[in-house]
Amino acid sequence: MPRVNIGCPIWTHDAWFGNLYPAPKSKVVPLQAYSQLFNSVECNSSFYHLPSVDTLLKWRDTVGPNFRFILKIPRTISHSGQLDISQARIAETMKNLAHLGPTLGGVMLQLPKQFSPVQLNQLAVFLRCIPSNITVSVEVRHIAFFKKGDDEKALNQLLIAHQANRVIMDTRALFACEPEQYAPSVRELLLDVQGKKPKVPTHVIATGNAPLVRFVGQQDIAKSRPYYQPWIRKTKQWLDEGKQPSLFFHMPDNKDAP
């Protein structure tokens, strides 16, 4: 049955207690509280450090069977060597993540801006190492992959061949935000986030059966509306086609992401 995953890039924030979550004194488990509001999470923490098996088992047992974790591949694989790593290491990573059982909604490979079309053969090797029962999504940031030329065509064909999803990064709202309109502390935050997030075209394409959208809003949530509302129609179209899309919402300060 088609489903849509909706969530945030984190499941805990100090500002959520006593607001989104019960007060801190309730000693509520943040992940459990989060899973009662959203059915999925984009787990960014795994990009910096792969969770231990014990941690993965704890996560699995904290949420219900219909919850889905989509974990980022560790940067030691995606960035340190730009995929120039052993197949055994990828297989071991997938074996560990499999401890999440049915709550493993997939993995996301975020590639650095330096990862260029000449390295697509390395991406092909990586994709061949992913078990067929694990959904994989790939985010690219090199501008050549957004020019609708042969390089982008080659990328899309590779992803289609492996039933891999091309991550759709929608940062339009973020970059429509004018930092100078805000107080110094907020201005500094916005400039920092704009400097880190990719300013690339939003190419809406489903190369696999589980399209994944990463939406980054701007400081004024209301001004983000014209950018996120079209995703409602697109999500319905994907569901009507039998696809299972995921939409994850980011904000300059992720306390506002929910």
Which structural class do you get from the secondary structure elements? alpha/beta
Percent helix, as a range, is 25-40%
Largest sheet: 5 strands, parallel
Query: For the largest beta sheet, what order do the strands appear in spatially?
Result: 2-3-4-5-6
Strand % is: 5-15%
Low-pLDDT runs: none
Descriptive report:
By secondary structure, this protein is of the alpha/beta class. It is 35% helix and 15% strand. The chain has helices at residues 30-35, 45-48, 53-62, 75-78, 87-97, 120-129, 150-161, 172-176, 184-196, 225-228, 230-240; strands spanning 5-7, 40-43, 68-72, 104-110, 136-139, 165-166, 168-170, 212-216, 246-250. The longest helix has 13 residues, at 184-196. It is globular and about 50 Å long.
Main attributes?
alpha/beta, 258 residues, 11 helices, 35% helix
